[in-house]
Amino acid sequence: VQLQASGGGLVxxxxxxxxxxxxxxxxxxxxxxxWHRQIPGKERELVATFTTxxxxxxxxxxxxxxxxxxxxxNDMAYLQMNSLKPExxxxxxxxxxxxxxxxxxxxxxxxxxx
Length: 114
Prior knowledge:
seven-stranded mixed β-sheet, mainly beta
């Protein structure tokens, strides 16, 4: 499975961005997809993900502002980010989990100016 994230950029506080993650390869093996973020020098943190039970998980810091979604073919995942704050600035990574492997895409940078 290969993942390609896109959609990052520079936005003012209060603005919105939509991140996309395209999955190619053995997509039928994908069980869940999600989004993480990382500030250089800090640990990567989970932002939002589909759960194995078919539910959704959001970090408390983004609840009510971010929405994760995917297409019916299960080869695209999205992260709609609204009401962005400067503390949301980070590299955002999508991941796809199969039974055996957790795949990662390259990061897409989000910068929120105050």
